[in-house]
Structure formats: structure tokens, C-alpha cells
Amino acid sequence: MDPLTVISFLLFTGLVAVLTWRLTRGRLDDTEEGFFLAGRSLTGVVIAGSLLLTNLSTEQLVGLNGGAYVNGLAVMCWEVIAGASLVILALFFLPRYLKSGIATVPQFLEERYGSGVRAVTTFVFIIAYMLILLPFVLFLGAKGLNGMLNLEGMLGWSEIQTIWTIVIFIGVVGSAYAIFGGMRAVAVSDTFNGVGLLIGGLMITFFAFLAAKGDGSFADAFAQLKADKPENLKSIATSEGHPVHWTTLFTGVLLLNFFYWTTNQQIIQRTFAAKSLAEGQKGVLLASFFKILAPLILVVPGLLAYQVFTNRLGHAEAQAMLGDDGAVYGKLVREVLPGWLTGFFAAVVVGSILSTFNSVLNSSATLFSLGVYKKILKPAASQHQLVLSGRVCSAVVAALSVLAAPLVFYGKDGLFNVFQELNGIYFIPILAIMLFGLFNRRADGLSALITILTGLCAMIIGTFFPGKQVTDAAGEVVSGGWKADIFQSGFHYMGAVFAGCLILQFILGRTMKRPGLYVQRDAQAVDLTPWKHAKKVGAGLLVLVFVLYAAFAF
Fold first, then answer.
1. CB crowding 116-138: b at 16 or more within 10 Å, else e
2. So what's the architecture of 3-20+27-407 in CATH?
3. 216-259, pLDDT tens digit by residue?
């Protein structure tokens, strides 16, 4: 490995750690609000940076660029529609969350439905983070770093040995931020890493353009790509069997985006720490703008990689990479960046992994400490005991997710779609009871409990028992299993389960009713005066989403 690569990697990683320590020194405390919500002191810029970096980790950098390499521009839906979902968070959900003065989404659900729903959703969030989200982030992070730095070749280890080593390293370092620093350290380090990721990601796009065009122009690069793979430059996929066929934009893809950005504890916890509603809305809408433009970093490099590999490695190698989408981004970085920049960008990627990892650990600690330890195990716990329980929870979740990472995802293809299908198991039923509870003020907690448990069972059955594929003598598929035959796409199945959950709770709510109508209380935790430009900016961002889709639709 080039010594400049190592030096630039260590310099940027160390710089972020030192700056985070300097800015949080003397401001980290062992109180509930200080550790879990940074004392409700976050400004718009910090919220935007933390939102983006918590999200923009290896599941996007590696997974989404790999998806773009195989499936084209249509995978931009995971980013562009996210921008629209953030507008809804800013204008509709955030005022309600901040009014309740909550620290967790299950806490909000308890206010609406009761303690039983809070206990179930807390348990579901923690288990899902430990067995789905963190293992995926760690595995793809290790896969991407291995490809960028060629650690496997340098160390002389097998791929799985290298992945285990990287996963353990990230787990140990990421745990330190979350366990000892709390939300403030997480948010500050996120902001620094966010700047690095923005700069580094744009560099990859720029150098990929240069490598793809060869001796021609940027226009030549796209012309060649359009000639080789014309379907890859369309924002709306129309070919049968495409994982994000245009119809899925109105079912599972929409619902997964909507839940992720409005109801997912791991993401929106930093908005609960806003110093005011106005600052929270500024941060969320700023994050929305960058998410809409995120395909420049998270999709375009994957599109260009096909031509880069064809130019540099040959057509056969480019074709072979279609079967290993998890390795595309790391190989692209190694091909297009000079050594000293590769080290910097590897540090940025490590920062993005750490950001998501420590943010999820902090969210898990918040969920456990406030929803289980304080609520069930030890209601009279002191502030110090509460924070200590959160730190223990973080350590346990970190250890188990490190163990699960290589075991869950190693050897699988189409990793980003696998990840989204697993997310749907808990996204769909929780989103259903959240939305129903906001628009129906009468249904009680028992109706919500029955609905969420039924939805979880339906999603587990559809995800893990979809039926066997059947082929004829010529090898043609005559049946893709009951789920594929009926719903064509797993995302359509999610839409059907979501609709079923709403209908079920509506029926149950006719007889299972609260004693009185639900009325939200005002905790007076922060100033709830909205940002005066929020609605206009939000409308402008929704127009931008429509324009981007229309521009590349045909």
C-alpha cells in the first residue's frame, strides 16, 4: 500500500477525533437529556449534518452504487424520494414530536396507545438494529474498505478473514463514541465526517467521469454508456423483473422511504435534540436538499463504473462485476483515485461507517434505558444509573452486531435489495399504527398491538417463506413462489401488508376504543414557533423531486 494512502487515512481520522473531543470537552454529562439528546441544543446545520451522515454510510456508498452498476439510474428512488419524505418530517411530524418533548418514537406511541405498544416497539427496534441494520453497515463497510485499500492482498488473508478484522476494528472504535460521548459527540463527529464525505464523494464522481470518458469528453462517456446500456440512464424502470420497477415507487419503495425518514428512531433522534422547532425544520429541509442531489455521489459513480472497468480492465471484467455488486465501489475507488486521495477517502468511509454505527448504538441505548430500564426494570433509577444502563446496552448491541455481520450477509448478491426487504419486516407494521394513530384519535392500544403483531408475522412469512421457484424442463421459470406469483415484487407485498394493517386496525378500532379522544399534550420542552420559510422551501423541494424524475424518465 502507498505510504501516502496510510498517512492521509490516519491524518483525517485523527483530525475528526481530536476536533470532536475539543468541541465536546466539558460539555458531556451524565444526565438523561445530556447523554441521549445533547441537552436539546442542536442547531439546524448540526442536525442536517448528523441526519446525512447517519444515513450516508456504506449501505449507500457501497450498496447503492453497486445497485446502480447492475440496475441503473432507477435506484435513485432511494435518495430522491427520501428528500420528499424529509419535507413531510419537517412540516408534519416534527412539530408533533417536539410538542410531546419525547426522546424516542416508542415514547410517542406510548402517549398515543399506552405502555404495551411502547414495550413492543422498543423491543422490535433494538432487535432489528442489532440483527439487520448494524450487521449490514459493518459488512458492506468492511467489503468497501477491503476493495479500496486492497487489504486482502496486502495482508495475505482470505476475504472473510479480512472482513472479520475490519468489522471488529469498526465495532471497537464506533462503540467508544457512543458509549463515552453520547449524542453530542455523535452529532459533532457526524458533521465533520459529513463535510469529508461530501468532498470525497464528489471527487469519486469527478475522477470516475475522467476515467470513463478516456480521451473524449464527458458527453462521450454518457454517449458510450447509453449505447452499451441505454436502460441504465432512465429514472423510471419499465422492464419486467427490475427490483425497483416504476410501480414499486407507489408501494414498498415509498413506504420504506417514508418510515425511514419520519418514524425510524435511529435517524430522527437527532431532530428530537433540536433547540427549537425552527432550527429543527431548517436542519431537516437542508438535509432534504442534499438527499435530492445525493445521486451525484451515490448513483452516478456506479453508472460510470461500467465504462471505467471496460476502459481499464476490459469488457469481460466489467461483465464479471455484475455478479458482485458489493465489490463495485471499492474497486472503482482504487481504480480512479491517486494513492494519497485514496487514504483520505478511506478515512471518510470509515467516518461514515462509524457515524451510522455509533448513532444506532446511541439510539439503542436511548430506547433501552428510557423504555425498558426506567420504565420496567428500575423506575426509581438515578440519572447516573440510567446513563450507565445505556452504555451497557450499547456495548451488548455492538458486540452482537459485530458477531452477526459476516454471518448474515456474506456470499449474498443484490445486497441493497436484501437489506430493504429485511427492513420491511418492522418498517411496515410500525408505520401503519403510527399513521393510523395520528389520523384516528379513538382506537386504543390493544388494536395497535394486535395490528403490529399481525403485520410482523405477515412480513416474516413473506420475507423468509416466499415459496419455491419452479422451472420446466427447458429451465424456464413457471412459478416464482406464491409471493412472486401473486405480488410480482416484494415491495408490492409490503404495500399489501401495509394496507391490510390499516384495514385491520380500522375494524378493531370500531370496538376497541379509548375512554376519550386522544389529545396531544404540550411538554413545553422547546420553542414551537415554526420557521417562517418552511412551507415555501418544502414546496420548492417537492418540485425539484418531480423535475429530476421527469428529466430522466425517457
1. ebbbbbbebbbebbbbbbbbbbb
2. Up-down Bundle (1.20)
3. 666 776 777 777 777 788 899 988 878 899 999 999 999 999 99
